[in-house]
Design goal:
The complex is a heterodimer of chains A (111) and B (112). Chain A is globular and about 40 Å long. With 111 residues, chain A is an all-beta fold. Helix content of chain A is 0%, strand content 59%. Chain A is built from no helices and 11 strands. Chain B is mostly beta strands. Classes of the chains: A mainly beta (111), B mainly beta (112).
Chain lengths: 111, 112
Amino acid sequence: KQEVTQIPAALSVPEGENLVLNCSFTDSAIYNLQWFRQDPGKGLTSLLLIQSSQREQTSGRLNASLDKSSGRSTLYIAASQPGDSATYLCAAPTGANNLFFGTGTRLTVIP
Amino acid sequence: EAGVAQSPRYKIIEKRQSVAFWCNPISGHATLYWYQQILGQGPKLLIQFQNNGVVDDSQLPKDRFSAERLKGVDSTLKIQPAKLEDSAVYLCASSLISGEQYFGPGTRLTVT
């Protein structure tokens, strides 16, 4: 069974800093990995999806990398803003596209 | 393009009562998922449908939870009878046969 771990559980940074969120998974037989954002009391917003054949995916100030062999993914956020404050979740599907989620990293960007 | 719709957004019930949630996926998405997210945890898959057939319901507590997807479009998730530990956010998601999943806003259930 896939297990997904996210470190750190919480992170506070001053506005403007670059930061990295980490995600590790135990079953490397994934065909993609998704990063999501969740605001308090809201659903999940998909940020990036990296196919297993890709090493990186970029969207604006976000860059996600995937290393299947080591079972790791990172989400890099450049020039953080207070609006980036949210919980960030990574999820890896196995089998019939069942997503296994980490417990998330709660990010606070201080103005 | 309309996203995944869910209702109600919030529900408060007493233990042993029943409750039902509704989900309307993105048009054309064959696969529909129900996840349970307990406070402080990541979502956990309860059941996955492809069209109107069940692909995976291995983590669905079948003694109290049931779900259906009639006609391969809308879906309902029911809990009967509810327990205190069922308090959670219930998220519905949809995708094409496989690939990127799109989530609805969720239903927050409080069982007292």
